[in-house]
């Protein structure tokens, strides 16, 4: 082996992917790579590829993280509001039974796709689950 062969000594550094930008793009429902194409083809179904730049998005494995984070975020919004309303105004029980389930449902439906997009963007930025481009397809 010749010492002038640089392929042996140089490791190709992959291009850096800014995590915060990717997470914010995903939160907005856009491709974490280009920020222009839609990440979702249905309400929670991630597109296989970005329609704008062609980036593969089918590698994601968001699994249970988006619902978990959604429950945590919505709970931290609804519970303090519920306690504040109860302590400040002492409304009848029917007011609580009307407001909080509806608000919880609406907030959950609003946050869930955004949090899923953020998780997929985070996985893309960290090159997790096949987003590194070095894995073989089945």
What does this structure look like?
The longest helix has 33 residues, at 93-125. This protein has helices at 19-27, 65-89, 93-125. The model has no long low-confidence stretch (mean pLDDT 90). The chain has 138 residues and is mainly alpha-helical. The protein contains three helices and no strands.
Indicate the proportion of strand residues: under 5%
- The helix tally amounts to 3
Q: Strand tally, please?
A: 0
Alpha carbon gyration radius: 21 Å
Reading the helices and strands in chain order gives HHH
Strand pairing plus helix content: what structural class? mainly alpha
Quickly list its features.
elongated; 0% strand; 138 residues; mainly alpha
């Amino acid at each position: 082996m010749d010492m002038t062969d640089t392929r042996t000594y140089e490791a190709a550094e992959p291009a850096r992917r800014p995590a915060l930008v990717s997470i914010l793009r995903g939160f907005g429902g856009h491709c974490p790579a280009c920020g222009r194409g839609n990440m979702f083809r249905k309400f929670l179904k991630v597109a296989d590829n970005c329609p704008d730049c062609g980036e593969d998005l089918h590698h994601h494995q968001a699994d249970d993280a988006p619902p978990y984070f959604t429950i945590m975020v919505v709970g931290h919004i609804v519970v303090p509001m519920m306690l504040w309303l109860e302590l400040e105004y002492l409304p009848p029980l029917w007011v609580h039974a009307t407001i909080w389930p509806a608000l919880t449902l609406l907030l959950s439906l609003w946050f869930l796709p955004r949090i899923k997009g953020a998780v997929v963007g985070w996985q893309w930025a960290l090159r997790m689950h096949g987003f590194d481009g070095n894995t073989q397809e089945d």
